[in-house]
């Protein structure tokens, strides 16, 4: 289903819409995401709380069902000194589906930029909630931790 705009926000109908939103957002940001990774907890849940520090480049997702925490990508390298804020939707919901997008350096498998896209579990808002320049190294190892 196409993403619809209402006021200042965009809304989807399924988690696949997150990657579409990340792709268009990344195009405006110059560094175009070419790899996308939906987040799924080992318990099977796709509902997460998301905490980030965009200055330090740290993201943590917490499963809304079993509370398993994952430091996303290379966040574990920068967690010391990070001040994490949890994301809350404009509708006050804190649970999101998450799909991350990664931009690579030209002719390389090395991560250049990380985008974290979300879809609200209450109102279906989709958006890039955080992004930063990220020297994350090899993309295959990196996306395995998203
Ligand atoms: Zn879980
Ligand atoms: Zn919402």
Distance between the termini: 25 Å
Secondary-structure element string: EEHEEEEEEEEH
Percentage of residues assigned to helices: 10-25%
Radius of gyration: 14 Å
Backbone structural class:
mainly beta
Which molecules other than protein and nucleic acid are bound? zinc ion
Q: How many domain regions?
A: 1
Q: Report on the biggest sheet.
A: 6 strands, antiparallel
Q: If strands are numbered along the chain, what order do they take across the biggest sheet?
A: 1-2-10-9-8-3
Question: Would you identify the regions where 5 or more consecutive residues have pLDDT less than 50?
Answer: none
Strand content: 35-45%
| Number of beta strands | 10
Task: Categorize the overall geometry.
Answer: globular
Query: Overall pLDDT, averaged?
Result: 97
Our count of helices gives: 2
Outline the structure in words:
This protein is mainly beta. The protein has one domain. The protein has 2 helices and 10 strands; from the N terminus they run E-E-H-E-E-E-E-E-E-E-E-H. The protein has a 6-stranded antiparallel sheet with strand order 1-2-10-9-8-3. It is globular and about 35 Å long.
């Amino acid at each position: 289903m196409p993403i619809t705009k209402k006021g200042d926000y965009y809304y989807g109908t399924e988690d696949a819409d997150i990657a579409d939103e990340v792709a268009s957002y990344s195009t405006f940001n110059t560094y175009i995401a070419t790899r996308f990774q939906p987040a799924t907890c080992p318990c099977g849940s796709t509902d997460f709380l998301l905490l980030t520090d965009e200055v330090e480049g740290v993201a943590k997702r917490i499963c809304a069902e079993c509370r398993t925490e994952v430091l996303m990508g290379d966040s574990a390298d920068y967690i010391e000194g990070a001040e994490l804020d949890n994301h809350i939707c404009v509708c006050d919901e804190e649970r999101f589906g998450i799909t991350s997008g990664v931009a690579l350096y030209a002719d390389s498998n090395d991560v250049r930029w990380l985008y974290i896209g979300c879809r609200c579990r209450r109102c279906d808002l989709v958006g890039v909630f955080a992004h930063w320049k990220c020297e994350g190294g090899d993309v295959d190892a990196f996306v395995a931790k998203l």
